[in-house]
Amino acid sequence: MLDIKFVRENPDIVKENIKKKFQDKKLPLVDEAIELDAKRREVQQRADEIRKDRNVKSKQIGALMGQGKKDEAEAVKAEVTAQAEELKSLEEQETTLAEELKKRMMVIPNIIDDSVPVGKDDSENVEVERFGEPVVPDFDIPYHTEIMEKHNGIDLDAARDVAGNGFYYLMGDIARLHSAVISYARDFMIDRGFTYCVPPFMIRSNVVTGVMSFEEMDAMMYKIEGEDLYLIGTSEHSMIGKFINKMIPEEELPKTLTSYSPCFRKEKGAHGIEERGVYRIHQFEKQEMIVVCKPEESPMWFDKLWQNTVDLFRSLDIPVRTLECCSGDLADLKVKSVDVEAWSPRQKKYFEVGSCSNLSDAQARRLGIRVKAADGSKYFAHTLNNTVVAPPRMLIAFIENNLNEDLSINIPKVLQPYMGGKSLIG
Q: CA–CA separation, 193 vs 45, rounded Å?
């Protein structure tokens, strides 16, 4: 959420940013927000004047009563009573105007970074860099569920009977591989100085609206019936929520956390053939990383975060590339985002396995996450998040890039301690 002072002083910049995101329907919100803010400040000023005058009159009443001027005191009391009615009306107006203003401010998108390429959707995202040499073996690679079934590692039919489409049972060595990747990712991030955390898997609505847009919430989140609770779609939500309404001493920054959690997503919409199996599902597990830092340090942390994911995938012999998200593909709270995509030898192309985002002070402003500097000044923190690894989607890339012709799966050396010393599945 933007600062209303910034919107008031820079309406053209805010409108141009909306146009860059191809959200022209939101352009009227800027003028509406400025108008509501002007009315709110006018009402607030009048209310403050009345409060000040009432304080003066209250002291005057006491003085008059002390002097035995009861009639004059009663006249002043009548004035105070009349002011009370006006003040009540003004306070109600102020509350209504503030709510209407917030509604508009919550959907005006954050100002994107100057480096973000302008484009309508993800088809116009820009490749930045490749890491590792993509290889296509001289044998056919089956669909990932066929490989898993070969190792008695997945049961989609039973899961469908139990929970419906979009769920799975992982079994045996494939299930163990799934857990090994999560454990390895945890230790990988701990070795890079991040504090490990297991967060709540449900969050309240005020945290949900603090970390994402209303559109994202509706598309992703499962609501707990009869409770003010939502199942998390990613642990980033509860991890950033950890600092809600906190005043963080500047010397404690940055806060660097890596978290494990299950994730739950609606995943609305039609899915293509490549999104069958375990690619797009309602429940999965994930290792995440988040940073809360000073504003001037967020660009540096942004580059560190996506590099962590690249390094982890390369340690598992998986070629990857980074993709700069264009303006139209950025969620409203984000100022800059880079996707990490893994190479699929079967599809002979890359597919998304993680996303790194800098949200500047948008989440902090919504959640009230502030920093107190040594000189006593206060400001909103910057927040960033990035996927470390999210199996089982990541397992698709892992299996395809470590597959042998007989459908056995090589286990890279760094993962073998988490697989009981195994160097091969199959």
A: 49
Residue 152: count of CB within 10 angstroms of its CB: 11
Cβ contact 174:148 at 8 Å = yes
Amino acid at 148: M
Q: What is the tens place of the pLDDT at every residue in 407-425? A: 999 999 999 999 999 999 9
Q: How many CB atoms lie within 10 A of CB 105?
A: 19
Contact criterion met (CB below 8 Å) for 70 and 63 = no
Tell me the two tokens of residue 61.
Answer: 């009443």
Task: Give the Cα separation of 6 and 28 in Å (integer).
Answer: 16
Phi, psi (degrees; rounded to nearest 5) at 330: -85, 130
pTM: 0.89
Beta bridge partners of 377: none
Backbone angles phi, psi at 341, to 5 degrees: -120, 140
The percent of the chain in helix, strand and coil, each rounded to the nearest 5, is 50, 20, 30
* Identity of the residue numbered 275: E
Query: Which helix (DSSP H) or strand (DSSP E) does residue 398 occupy?
Result: helix 393-401
Report CA Rg, the chain. Answer: 27
The pair of three-digit structure tokens given for residue 255, joined into one six-digit string: 């806060």
Task: Tell which residue, 310, 341, 342, 305, has the closest CA to residue 323.
Answer: 341
35-45 as b/e, with b when 16 or more CB fall inside 10 Å? ebbebbeebbe
- The answer to whether the CB of 210 falls within 8 A of the CB of 367 is yes
Q: Residues 129-182: pLDDT tens digits?
A: 999 999 999 999 999 999 999 999 999 999 999 998 889 999 999 999 999 999
Q: Encoding tokens for residue 141?
A: 């690679």
Name the nearest CA neighbour of 264 among 242, 236, 285, 240: 285
Pick from 110, 44, 11, 95: nearest CA to 336: 110
Q: Tokens at residue 186, please?
A: 């945890």
